[in-house]
Design a protein that fits this description.
Layout: H1 3-18, H2 22-34, H3 36-67, H4 69-93, H5 108-120, H6 124-133, H7 143-168, H8 173-179, H9 181-201
């Protein structure tokens, strides 16, 4: 995979990881309720769940492109519509949402279990990844290239939420996030809508 193409993939995966939602709320809750270790544990195990869905998506996309190109196009547009819906939801979130979780006492074991369950319990991740990875997967793509895509999704998702957990372990960070939550949501919303339009435009070359 060319470096320029991988950088596009990394940027899109980062945009998806940074979007507000239940995953961010999960990491925030475990960090605030148990400290840095539970927060990082939730982040890592959530990334493993995300990697499972990314693996399913990558291996299924190539076959879908070859056997049912019209169905693949329809699924891709549905994915784009989902991205746009996430963007609109973020724009309307204001100061509330995932940046104002209820802090409860937690443990690394609970964090690991919930991290996986939040990822695997969200089948919409399949649609999300179809929209994202349809830009990069081709029928003739090698196993190594597919593995790089899955590893990129895991590392970026886990890395982002680990950074969130580490950052929130410092008491000054959360108040800053809460004060600027509306701007974070607005920026994320605009980027997700732009990504949806990019998906409709066709694959990145």
């Amino acid at each position: 995979m060319p470096l320029s193409l991988w950088l596009s993939l990394a940027a899109i995966c980062a945009m998806g990881a940074m979007s507000p939602g239940p995953s961010l709320a999960l990491v925030l809750r475990h960090t605030l309720g148990g400290g840095r270790l539970p927060g990082m544990t939730a982040a890592i195990f959530h990334a493993l769940g995300v990697g499972f869905y990314a693996l399913l998506t990558v291996w299924g996309l190539g076959a879908l492109i070859v056997r049912h190109p019209d169905l693949f196009q329809l699924v891709t547009w549905c994915g784009a519509a989902y991205l746009a819906w996430l963007g609109i939801k973020a724009l309307r979130a204001g100061r509330g949402g995932a940046l104002s979780p209820d802090a409860a006492v937690t443990t690394p074991r609970q964090a690991a279990k919930e991290g996986v369950l939040v990822a695997l319990g969200n089948p919409k991740l399949i649609i999300f990844f179809v929209a994202l990875l349809s830009q990069f997967v081709t029928p003739e793509m090698s196993v190594l290239a597919k593995a790089i895509i899955v590893a990129t999704a895991i590392i970026i998702d886990g890395g982002w939420y680990v950074l969130v957990a580490v950052g929130l372990s410092h008491s000054r960070v959360l108040p800053w996030l809460q004060r600027h939550a509306h701007w974070i949501n607005r920026i994320t919303g605009v980027l997700l809508i732009a990504l949806a339009l990019r998906v409709v435009a066709g694959p990145i070359s």
